[in-house]
Amino acid sequence: MVASECASLSGSAVSTVALPTLAVLELHASTTQIAALAFLGQLPNAVVALPAGALSDRHAKRPQMIAADLTAAAGLATIPAASFAGVLGIGQLYAVAVLLGITKIVHGAAAISYLPVLVEPHQLQRANSRLGAASSVADSAGSNAGAALVGAIGAARSLLADVLSYLVSALLVWRVRTPEPVAAPTEAHRTLARDIGEGLRYVTGQPMIRTVIAALSTLSFGLAVMNTYWAYGASPEWWTR
């Protein structure tokens, strides 16, 4: 489980560097297009997170994680293929950025729900700590590796490293053999919107969880703004003003 998350996160960090660089160097994208690319990459966090959490409670987590990884790998692989064929466009980068955002949310929601299946309740806090630490190291290493790969082999080819990371992640999740409890059958009258509403009410009713969510939301907002301006500043138009 830890190895799978590290593989996925390190590869995603490579794409964070490679996608805007590819837009600038190969497509000569404008500052508006680069900013739009950054925005679309963050959009699923606001739109998909709540439904993904509810779906992870309704269905088996392991297949969701594998499907998300394979979908991300397939979508991302289209970029170097299109680049090599000379048909890559900014619209394709937009579509893949949204797809990667969605699959990341689906995988993450399922992974959080799946961890308690793998460890005993008294080990859950330690497992979460180790997973968080390993994920932070993988994300940082992936960003550095992404910058090095882009400089060494080009932005398009460096994305193949992310494709490989998703395939490795899917393989590692597939190899997990811990049986997952069968989800309780959903009542016929219960809708996805109702499940989402109940989850929100539970979060807002727990002071500690509410505080953590607020802190993480603030951090995510700040990082999104920073990433947007970083990508925006990568355009030559920014420096010729």
What would the keywords be for this entry?
single chain, mainly alpha, globular
Question: Could you describe the 3D structure shown?
Answer:
Helices cover 82% and strands 0% of the residues. The protein has 10 helices and no strands. 34% of the residues are buried. The chain has helices at 2-25, 31-47, 49-58, 61-85, 90-118, 124-153, 155-174, 192-204, 207-232, 236-239. The chain has 241 residues and is mostly helical. The termini are far apart. The radius of gyration is 19 Å and the shape is globular.
Largest sheet: none
Number of strands: 0
* Low-pLDDT residue spans: none
Mean pLDDT: 78
Write down the overall geometry.
globular
Oligomer: single chain
Instruction: Give the termini separation.
Output: 47 Å
Q: What portion of residues is helical?
A: over 70%
Instruction: Provide the succession of SSEs.
Output: HHHHHHHHHH
Rg value: 19 Å
State the secondary-structure class. mainly alpha
Determine the number of helices (DSSP H or I, runs of at least 4 residues).
10
Q: Strand percentage, roughly?
A: under 5%
